[in-house]
Amino acid sequence: MKKILVINTGGTIAMSVDASEGVKPLDDQAVVKNLPFLQRYADVTMVNFLNLPSPHITPAVMNDLRLFIQQELDQHGYDGVVVTHGTDTLEETAYFLDITLPVTVPVVLTGAMRSSNELGADGPVNLISSVRVAADPQSRDKGVLVVFNDEIHAARHVTKTHTSNVATFQSPAYGPIGTISKKSVNYHHAPLVREHYAIEHANANVPLIKAVAGMDPNWLDFLFTQQVDGLVVEAFGLGNLPPAVVPVLGKLLDKGVPIVLVSRCYNGQVQDVYDYEGGGRKLKELGIVFSNGLNGQKARIKLMVVLQQTRDFGELQRLFEQ
Ligand SMILES: NC(=O)C[C@H](N)C(=O)O
Prior knowledge:
Elements: E1 3-8, E2 15-17, E3 23-25, H1 35-38, E4 43-48, H2 59-76, E5 80-84, H3 90-100, E6 107-110, H4 123-135, E7 144-148, E8 151-154, E9 159-160, E10 169-170, E11 178-180, E12 185-187, E13 208-210, E14 231-235, H5 246-254, E15 259-263, H6 280-286, E16 289-290, H7 296-306, H8 313-321
Parallel strand pairs: 1-4, 1-5, 5-6, 6-7, 13-14, 14-15, 15-16
Antiparallel strand pairs: 2-3, 7-8, 8-11, 9-10, 11-12
């Protein structure tokens, strides 16, 4: 039997609903109750690392989790790791681990949309599916995976798409890379791009701002009242912004702060095509780095990570084209 480590960090999978219909964390993390059943699929060791709702997870916590996983793998040689996590920020932790953990064993993130005592609770099946995926040799060297609702997604592409549906995790541009049926784990794609960056910390101050019609440049004053290490901007469509905010971004670039552009569309890449004021071509000429399809929250994680390697525009542009 494969040796699988399950690391609990909290989230709805470890919560229950009370008489007033409030959903709250359980002291003992309810997922532990599934442990005997999980042993059918693997030799499972379970640790309660944290018990946080995922809006409480920070990049510093993600980094602690990375170090913990690495240490456990080094010391105990597990065949795979499953992390239970709240769904709100799960994609950020999954992507952070994907680009910072240099491991070939499967690392799978999962959680639940319904708390442990709700009718149709999805936590137990997601956890069992995740252990099955982590124990499957086909899952090696595929980067960090997200398993939800019988689907396997690559950390790079997956995002939370629905506030409450159990099928919330989707990879809008590419679909899942595999599925889980009653008897087998089936892959039909493998991620082509694998990135790894050695890091020391996850402390960079990198805000994310979203473009809206009629955006007021004064909203961005905060960028000059604190030490900002980098900025990610979710632009319109192909990568265009309201002209009024461009001088603000220019001032920030003059201060040496790298800016990465993504699209607020959930499909497609930003490109330097439009040559009007605020258009993508002008933004690229200004020195803004164009990302290739990452959403805003993941581009922010990547910038926090790669700023530890370089602040050079050309090098950042190369890394964000991968
Ligand atoms: N379904 C969930 O896990 C949502 C919860 N608010 C969390 O992220 O912790």
